Amino acid sequence: MSGPKRPTDAETEILRVLWERGPSTVREVHGALEAQRGTGYTTVLKLMQIMAQKGLAARDERKRSHVYRPLVDREGVEEGLVGDLIDRVFDGSASELVVRALSSKPASTEELSALQAMLGDLIAAREEGEEEGR
Amino acid sequence: MSGPKRPTDAETEILRVLWERGPSTVREVHGALEAQRGTGYTTVLKLMQIMAQKGLAARDERKRSHVYRPLVDREGVEEGLVGDLIDRVFDGSASELVVRALSSKPASTEELSALQAMLGDLIAAREEGEEEGR
DNA sequence: TTAAGTCAACGAAAGTCTTCGTACTTAATC
DNA sequence: GATTAAGTACGAAGACTTTCGTTGACTTAA
């Protein structure tokens, strides 16, 4: 029954490595993270132990170096993080967030076109649903 | 120069009240917040004192009830929060965040159309800029 | 002038998050 | 067997956030 709390910043960073690399040891995650940050080995170890305890990851202890795999899927976590921001800051309006996103991190023209096309598809799908609903 | 740290959750909640109401007393902010939450008066007071200390708000002490006003503008804070999420979770890609936003909080068909139109304007503006650049 | 209400100030407690040092265990190497 | 290396476990410290009780000052009404 536990609520689906959002992972902390450090946990999210580790989840991203696990999603990218697949099941990994602490050393492997530490190696991937060290490139960006200067976190110590035992810090990453402790975080991953906590994540296992929280149910964010599971570990296989059969080998000496335990192998961790994510227990939460990327899409769900991303949706949770974005949805939380939308609720807390944008009054539940996804489109308000989109406006700010595009002014904060301008996308390339190609990306904008792709987004526009995606929106078109979404709208078309809805109109089709309306037809059938009659 | 101090980095533009992002406000905490509770601070963001208070900022939203100040942005909406304009300069307000602690009691007024508490009243607006109490409707949603059960935070005590002194909690809000303390938070607003800290916000003044951090430079997120300024206060006018001429009256007995101090009047607080936001020192950071809404657009900037929103961009900072969204931009931080984009960097941390979506590898800097705004369009990836948009995709997740729309699957997390489906927008109305009208909003989707408005967004699509906005994207069209953005793209058109860029092509025009290209023309002039020649 | 006293009593009751309103407010700011302050400190402290509790909870989280992140970090790392240290100790213990197991495996490999000499 | 002794020593080094690689791992996990554990505890604790430090920073930050949020919460609230208590105190003292000031205001208003009785």
Commentary on this structure:
2 copies of one chain form a homodimer. The first copy, chain A, has 134 residues and is mainly alpha-helical. Chain A folds into 2 domains: 62 residues, Winged helix-like DNA-binding domain superfamily/Winged helix DNA-binding domain (Arc Repressor Mutant, subunit A); 60 residues, no CATH class. Chain A contains 6 helices and 3 strands; from the N terminus they run αβααββααα. A 3-stranded antiparallel sheet of chain A has the order 1-3-2. In chain A, strand 2 and strand 3 form a beta hairpin. The longest helix of chain A is centred in the C-terminal third of the chain and has 25 residues. Chain A is elongated and about 60 Å long. The model of chain A has no long low-confidence stretch (mean pLDDT 92). At the A-B interface, helix 1, helix 4, helix 5 and helix 6 of A face helix 1, helix 4, helix 5 and helix 6 of B. The structure holds a DNA duplex (30 and 30 nucleotides).
Mean model confidence by pLDDT of chain A: 92
Going by helix content, strand content and strand pairing, the class of chain A is: mainly alpha
Spell out the helices and strands of chain A N to C: HEHHEEHHH
Helix content of chain A: 55-70%
**Count of individual beta strands of chain A:** 3
Radius of gyration of chain A equals 20 Å
Shape of chain A: elongated
- Low-confidence parts of chain A: none
End-to-end span of chain A in angstroms? 39 Å
**Count of DSSP-assigned helices of chain A:** 6
Number of domains of chain A: 2
Spatial strand order of the main sheet of chain A: 1-3-2
